Amino acid sequence: MQFRIDAQDGAARAATIQTAHSVIQTPVFMPVGTVGAVKALDALDLQNHLSPQIILGNTYHLYLRPGDEIVKAMGGLHGFTRFPKSFLTDSGGFQAFSLSDNVKIEEDGITFRSHIDGSKHHFTPQKVLDIQYNLGSDIMMILDDLVALPATRERIRESIERTTRWAQRSIDYHRRKQMEGIGVDQNIFAIIQGGTDKEFRKISATELCALDFDGFAIGGLSVGEANREMYDTVEWTTPFMPTDKPRYLMGVGTPEDLVENVERGVDMFDCVMPTRNARNGTLFTSFGKVTIKAARYATDEEPIDPECGCIVCRTYSRAYLRHLFRAKELTYFRLATIHNLYYYLDLMRQMREAILEGKFAEFKRKFYRKRDNG
Amino acid sequence: MQFRIDAQDGAARAATIQTAHSVIQTPVFMPVGTVGAVKALDALDLQNHLSPQIILGNTYHLYLRPGDEIVKAMGGLHGFTRFPKSFLTDSGGFQAFSLSDNVKIEEDGITFRSHIDGSKHHFTPQKVLDIQYNLGSDIMMILDDLVALPATRERIRESIERTTRWAQRSIDYHRRKQMEGIGVDQNIFAIIQGGTDKEFRKISATELCALDFDGFAIGGLSVGEANREMYDTVEWTTPFMPTDKPRYLMGVGTPEDLVENVERGVDMFDCVMPTRNARNGTLFTSFGKVTIKAARYATDEEPIDPECGCIVCRTYSRAYLRHLFRAKELTYFRLATIHNLYYYLDLMRQMREAILEGKFAEFKRKFYRKRDNG
């Protein structure tokens, strides 16, 4: 993976990442394709209507169904899904932790039962990399030791220390595997933990960033803390991260979160928000959120966002989308998803443009002003 | 509406229908777009991947939600849905009869309660035309008096007689409205009833076909009778129908049904089968049906039908579609729907081609031979 900073404006960065499958211009938002499809869309929708350079796959889901061996047999995620650009896969740890029953975390790894059929499984730092080798993702995330909050400081400290030990095992395993010719084109990111605690974040960042990873993520945020706490934690943590490697803020967030964290030096984001909110009837626009079921849209001939260039806004009225949503038509979910993802991806492009022109502060002012007037 | 027979091969006809919105080449299959969208697809999918010249809308559904006045305010079905070709709308009677509670049929019309909110409504032959004027469909179906089977011969006879009386009221009302400048570009079809009873079919066909309708439908079939009974009834009925107007067999059917009834002189069909079966995991191919969830497709790299030219078969494997189906991904429903409709529309094109070449019998032999070998 090649990484190059194209421009910097304050702490905000515009960079270019080159993987084996695509050139990724940052700041970048990665649509979530949990089981090998961005919900309601297919690979042609992505290519024709959205042009993302990278999307996410969830290791936990793909491991359980269809199974990573099957994905491997079908040519990895790229061959299986026909999405030819980059994939990032998470470690599966978060879903094992949050979706499964009877989760047990030990020094060796995580034991859990499938939410699909109750079958018992065991994830270790090495195992989740083996799965991701089969998936063939361009960026692999390592297993980390997650903590259910609230937790004692001892438990949080233990989790950070274990995460570092697992990170060491992961990077050692990966570099050894690459020597054997496995995962040669695959990159590996570590995940900084520590909640909103400055000391823990500093320890976690310092320890992990001393290791030879291809990039670093900030995990454990956007879990219910105040926005300000999230922004402060990111601002505190990024100085401990290398400038010459990608920075990925996991599971974030709202359009405002993206703007605030790009300003603080984050390069990569993912979140289910644009896709999930689309399905629930909340559409993102340059002037704020639209609740499409509202009665005032019943005969509204305007597109969702008159300033949006997406295929949905160029074709359909709010009235038609409202009708499809109320009738629970399958058609609705795809159209709303295309619009929301277009909005997110376009927002990232606008931010990159502003950084390249050294006008991020101006961009940010306009971004908020429009929403206030919306 | 203009209607021209392009070729005839035995009883099978290839014709051209010109409406205000499209040129329809027959035999034609009309995808069902119940509430103003073919389920899982949008108008651009239809245009880009399927190119139907006419689709169906359901008057009952559109009347209840969003309401025909709203559709009218949005430019009718064409403006609202952005599908620019022809629409055929049914009378709403069948759904009022089958989906609603407390249905009451009297000489005046049908009283029923909405399946959505229980509200009370009354459909008369005139009222369902008023609704269809608002919808702006190219072909409107008249209200008929439906009978729940089993029924006495008296009740069936009464329904046929009432259907004729309602047809007279419908055509009188429509021609008067057209004189007033309403529905000028809209066409009106009557519906021949009578179950599988030859005498009743003859009476119904003779009485209705004496009236000045733009086309005639055969209704009340594909409701559980044996295939042979359906085919025989159509074969018996078509000779009582004018040769210079379109013949529409409502709610039919399987690919085999289409072939058999085209052979017997039917021009137009509609059915939820390709779309509903797609969603349920049954895919149509030139060699018969595919149950996509079957374990044998788990690592099958072939497209659904190697002979199919649809965008789905040109892009995705059976393995990927099976996975999406098992994971209940929204993406699946659209891809499967596109494939099944493509198969249906392509089958009609093949039949038209065969009729134009005077080779329908040969086409039919090959059609069945492939399925036997499948």
UniProtKB/TrEMBL annotation, chains A, B:
It is an enzyme of class 2 (transferase). Coiled coil: none annotated. It catalyses: 7-aminomethyl-7-carbaguanine + guanosine(34) in tRNA = 7-aminomethyl-7-carbaguanosine(34) in tRNA + guanine. Pathway: tRNA modification; tRNA-queuosine biosynthesis. Its EC number is 2.4.2.29. Substrate binds at D90, S91, G92, G93, F94, D144, Q193, G220. Pfam families: TGT. Its cofactor is Zn(2+). GO terms for molecular function: metal ion binding; tRNA-guanosine(34) queuine transglycosylase activity. GO terms for cellular component: cytosol. Zn(2+) binds at C308, C310, C313, H339. InterPro entries: TGT, TGT-like_sf, tRNA_ribo_trans-like. The active site is at D90, D270. The keyword Ribosomal protein does not apply. It comes from the Bacteria. Residues 11-372 form the tRNA-guanine(15) transglycosylase-like domain. Residues 251-257, 275-279 are annotated as: RNA binding. Binds 1 zinc ion per subunit. Belongs to the queuine tRNA-ribosyltransferase family. Catalyzes the base-exchange of a guanine (G) residue with the queuine precursor 7-aminomethyl-7-deazaguanine (PreQ1) at position 34 (anticodon wobble position) in tRNAs with GU(N) anticodons (tRNA-Asp, -Asn, -His and -Tyr). Catalysis occurs through a double-displacement mechanism. The nucleophile active site attacks the C1' of nucleotide 34 to detach the guanine base from the RNA, forming a covalent enzyme-RNA intermediate. The proton acceptor active site deprotonates the incoming PreQ1, allowing a nucleophilic attack on the C1' of the ribose to form the product. Homodimer. Within each dimer, one monomer is responsible for RNA recognition and catalysis, while the other monomer binds to the replacement base PreQ1. This is Queuine tRNA-ribosyltransferase.
